[in-house]
Write a structure and sequence with these properties.
heterotrimer, A alpha/beta, B mainly alpha, C mainly alpha, A: alpha/beta, Rossmann fold, 6-stranded mixed beta sheet, 16 helices, 19 strands, about 30% helix, globular, B: mainly alpha, Arp2/3 complex 21 kDa subunit ARPC3, two-stranded antiparallel sheet, 3 strands
């Protein structure tokens, strides 16, 4: 292998997952054919580069990352063709445990990759597998933890770490092993901006090459990447390109990866609001009230963003609003919008709240348990006195609206984006007055988020989006609420909300950092397309 | 295009036993189901029956025994039951798994297996209890164990069927 | 839910080597099943209780009693009628309620039950499950088994959170808190199904993580952490031998 040979070369790779029901032909097309997740895909990664593969949520980025790391189809089954060469040697039939020093993967969900009870044993695990001497291991573990800022964490249980700290721990595991190729599969999402930069620096210092998988374009990606590819419909459609390449940017726009956020859906004139008065809440064992909201009206008819760093109380407030948690003090009720001190609609019990307010968990799997999409959608409807034919009609309508093509597919096997849409579709059919969507921006591209919000807003009067993405908050919503330490510290109409001037505490968390000028800033335009 | 089947490697076995043992522990410790007539039961037996039916007797035995033993150790006062739970629930998982395997998918066999497992479980606890608490007190715990075991069989079989329908890859993971 | 009953501390019980603590458990069992008089057994129980009180604080004696007092009552009430041997000790209205044999057996059972409970309780309080796994490994438990236990411990808290989240999600979808007592099957089967699906989906993903970090390689594994050997172990071993002697002397005497 010469100096100019690529570190990673993928040639004409095709892959499809096993058929859900065990049936399905071997044919590539026609009825019963299984969808090709990757279709004759080719690309390469040069040494000392930071290559970026951009793609929508379900484009196949994670599948591709896992194939490169030798994990698929080993643990999933499926049909595969083509070649993957790492450092010149083919990896297709090599078991992953023999590729430990060739490739290291950090997944989007850190829960998937942490399995011991101490941070130091977590980092040491791979070294133990390699049969390293104990003194060498101790040195590497200490050094690894230090470099990611977890110096004192050796004895801590990884379960007690924050999301960002868990990601850093996984990077420490990579630093200890020092594989040639680093693959970061949407791995930077939970990190503060400074740590995102730092991790990418560490990667370029220690790795032979870095491969980033991202579903969204950001200035960080733009500044640190050396070559860019777009993965769409199973192939590399654009790239390798430099970051300023107009063809690439156009392709990204089309795929919905650049934040060409539409304007918020028009405000609906619906009377009624959810009124929060004098609410105080604390968890058992807490001193003092962790959450305090004196006066909040969430009007039916507006799309509201709820932003704040992790731990600011967003999820707790959401759970109180839908009746899962009961505040010790104060009341929540339904009334006319923007009324005075007392809730004029009377206090609503948690049961009443649950009947009218919906909460979409970040993990859509929490509510999936039926074998087909059709049954999931029909679940709530069957209980009400609606005829069979009407149920069928509504289910088909919802499926079409939310791009759920196959009504007989098992929901548990759908991609994350599809499961999220299914979740939204079920609540769409349940006709609630207000829906709270938790962490809507994780794993979905801007285009998909806009479509989802539009669809929901067409029937659901009120929407609350909990998000880290300040640009999304400003463009897709009418109003922005900022939470900090359990209190609402800002409440402004969206156009007046300036992400750049947001409190450092808010801006320092999640995808949109304060020092990150924000994706809208880079190109200067936020296109205003009508809803399609 | 080459079709590959999922590999059931040692890593896969470790992962499946560990995760299902954890499910067993959580369902034993965290979940308290109020019964119409008397007190509370836990759902640990649901996990054992589920594991035995879906993954087989070996998994059912180990994750069932380990899961309940850990639940005992984590409770404090019941810690000394851990070695007993390990054996008793391990046997339960083994028997349910073996009987359901005779003809996979056969509901009747699953029910029989479940009942046998439940009887062995209640009987095992009873025998051990004779030495620790005396025959009388140990006997008073048998009805509760039988009810718990019974609920475990019913729910375990139903949930196993539901999960096999909703998540088809599980059908291939027998070993 | 914290997956640990262990509370860190600096008592002599905590500092006792994990291997010694592990050996202590079967020793306790043996001690209480060796044929002996109730007095000896009660003394044993009292000693163990004293150890707990000194090392962990007297308040730690309460939880087992709080949980298990019904069993103690049952033993006291149900044992005498089945053991009517020996001289009568308590007679009311011509009915023998308690005999010498009954008293002996009752006291033996009470002491045994309480003693074993306290013995295990003390160990579980003063030893982290990580150390327990390390100790078992030292005694020869294969690596694969130790790994399984570690991963199980790691997975328990996450699954507990999943359980609660799934319950909430199902409840919300059904439209708020259910009125009255919902039927068990109808409520729990969907929730259990969702939880099981999520758990089972995690299996291949966890297997991927394990093999990515080298599990399954043919070369021998080295060990990053281990129980300290050396003088401490010797002292603890001596202490354990002494304890064994103390606990089992009735057997020795009988021989």
């Amino acid at each position: 292998m010469t100096h100019h040979d690529p570190l990673l070369a993928v040639q004409q790779l095709s892959f499809r997952y096993p058929s859900a029901t065990g049936a399905g032909t071997q044919a590539a097309t026609g009825p019963g054919a299984r969808r090709l997740v990757l279709d004759d895909l080719s690309f390469s990664v040069r040494a000392a580069s930071t290559s970026v593969i951009l793609g929508r949520a379900d484009a196949g980025k994670t599948t591709l990352a896992r194939i490169i790391a030798g994990l698929v189809p080993r643990f999933t089954g499926g049909g595969i063709a083509g070649e993957v060469r790492l450092l010149g040697s083919p990896t297709r039939s090599v078991p992953p445990y023999d590729l430990v020093q060739s490739v290291g993967l950090v997944a989007q969900d850190s829960e998937e990759q942490l399995f011991t009870t101490r941070c130091d044993t977590e980092v040491a695990f791979a070294l133990e597998s390699l049969g390293m001497d104990r003194a060498v291991m101790r040195h590497r573990v200490t050094q690894g933890l230090e470099r990611v800022g977890l110096a004192g964490f050796a004895g801590r249980n990884p379960a007690t770490l924050s999301g960002g700290e868990k990601k850093r721990l996984l990077v420490a595991c990579l630093l200890a092993v020092q594989p040639q190729l680093w693959i970061l599969d949407e791995a930077l999402g939970e990190l503060d901006f400074e740590w995102k930069v730092r991790i990418l620096e560490l990667a370029s210092e220690t790795a032979g090459a870095t491969l980033l998988m991202e579903s969204r374009w950001s200035s960080l990606v733009e500044s640190r990447g050396t070559s860019f590819h777009l993965l769409d419909e199973g192939r590399i459609r654009a790239g390798p390109r430099g970051s300023a390449d107009t063809e690439l940017l156009l392709a990204l726009d089309e795929a919905g990866i650049r934040p060409s956020l539409r304007a918020a859906p028009p405000r609906v004139q619906v009377a009624g609001a959810l009124q929060v008065r004098g609410v105080r809440f604390r968890f058992p064992g807490e001193q003092g009230f962790g959450l305090a909201v004196d006066h909040l009206d969430l009007g039916f008819g507006e799309v509201c963003a709820l932003v704040g760093r992790n731990g600011s109380g967003k999820s707790t407030l959401a759970r109180i609003l839908c009746g899962l948690l009961r505040p010790q003090v104060g009341s929540i009720g339904f009334g006319r919008a923007a009324s005075g001190q007392a809730a004029d609609g009377g206090e609503a019990s948690p049961a009443d709240l649950g009947a009218r307010i919906g909460y979409l968990f970040q993990n859509p799997d929490h509510q999936i348990f039926l074998p087909t999409v059709r049954e999931e959608l029909a679940l709530g409807l069957r209980a009400s006195r609606v005829s069979r034919a009407e149920v069928e009609r509504r289910v088909s309508q919802a499926a079409e609206l939310f791009d759920l093509a196959d009504l007989d597919a098992p929901p548990a096997l759908l991609s994350y984006g599809a499961r999220r849409r299914l979740q939204a579709a079920t609540y769409f059919l349940l006709e609630r007055d207000l829906l709270i969507l938790d962490e809507i921006d994780s794993g979905l591209s801007y285009g998909e988020i806009s479509r989802l919000v539009d669809r929901l807003a067409s029937r659901v009067p009120g929407l609350v989006l909990i998000t880290h993405d300040l640009a999304l908050a400003r463009s897709a919503c009418h109003r922005v609420l900022v939470m900090e330490h359990g209190r609402i510290v800002r409440d402004s109409p969206a156009p007046a909300f300036d992400p750049g001037a947001a409190d450092g505490s808010v801006a320092a968390s999640g995808a949109g950092g304060a020092r990150d000028p924000g994706p809208a800033g880079a190109s200067g335009t936020v296109s205003r397309e009508g809803s399609s | 295009m080459i079709e590959e089947k999922p590999a059931v490697s040692p890593a896969f076995r470790v992962a499946s036993i560990a995760i299902l043992a954890a499910v067993t522990t959580v369902l034993t410790r965290v979940v308290q189901v109020p019964l119409p007539a008397r007190g509370y039961i836990n759902l640990g037996d649901v996990a054992i029956v589920f594991t035995a039916i879906t993954l087989g007797p070996f998994s059912g035995a180990i994750s069932g025994g380990l899961g309940t033993a850990l639940a005992d150790l984590l409770s404090g006062p019941y810690a000394f039951w851990a070695p007993i739970s390990l054996v008793v629930h391990g046997l339960q998982g083994l028997l349910v798994g073996l009987l359901s395997r005779v003809r996979p998918g056969n509901l009747g066999l699953q029910v029989v297996g479940g009942i046998v497992g439940m009887a062995v479980m209640a009987g095992g606890y009873f025998l051990a209890g004779i030495f620790i608490e005396g025959a009388g007190p140990s006997l008073t715990e048998v009805p509760g164990n039988l009810i718990q075991g019974g609920v475990g069989v019913v729910l375990g079989i139903l949930v196993a069927a539901a999960v096999l329908r909703a998540y088809p890859p599980l059908r291939q993971w027998k070993w | 839910m914290i997956a640990e009953f262990y509370v860190p501390g600096a008592s002599f019980l905590h500092q006792w080597d994990a291997r010694a603590k592990l050996l202590f458990l079967p020793l306790v069992l043996a001690a209480f099943f060796v044929p002996s008089t109730p007095l000896v057994l009660l003394l044993l129980t009292a000693t163990i209780a004293a150890v707990i009180a000194i090392a962990l604080g007297p308040s730690q004696l309460v939880p087992p009693l709080k949980t298990l007092w019904p069993v103690l009552v049952l033993i006291t009430v149900l044992t005498p009628p089945f053991h009517p041997e020996g001289a009568a000790l308590l007679r009311i209205g011509g009915v023998t309620l308690l005999t010498h044999g009954g008293l002996t057996t009752t006291l033996t059972l009470l002491a045994r039950f309480l003693g074993i409970t306290y013995g295990f309780f003390a160990v579980v309080r003063a030893m982290s499950l990580d150390d327990l796994v390390l100790g078992l490994r030292w005694f020869g438990l294969p690596y694969g088994a130790c790994l399984v236990v570690t991963i199980t411990l790691r997975t328990i808290p996450a699954l507990a959170l999943t359980w609660h989240a799934v319950r909430d999600a199902h409840r919300l979808r059904a439209g708020g808190s259910a009125r009255g007592r919902p039927p068990i099957v109808k409520t729990y089967v969907p929730v259990l199904t969702s939880v099981m699906i999520e758990a089972v989906k995690g299996i291949p993903v966890l297997a991927m993580a394990l093999e990515s970090r080298g599990f399954g390689r043919r070369n021998p594994r080295t060990s990053f952490s281990g129980l300290k050997a050396g003088s401490r172990l010797f002292v603890d071993a001596m202490g354990l031998a002494a304890a064994a002697a103390a606990l089992l002397w009735p057997l020795v005497v009988r021989w």
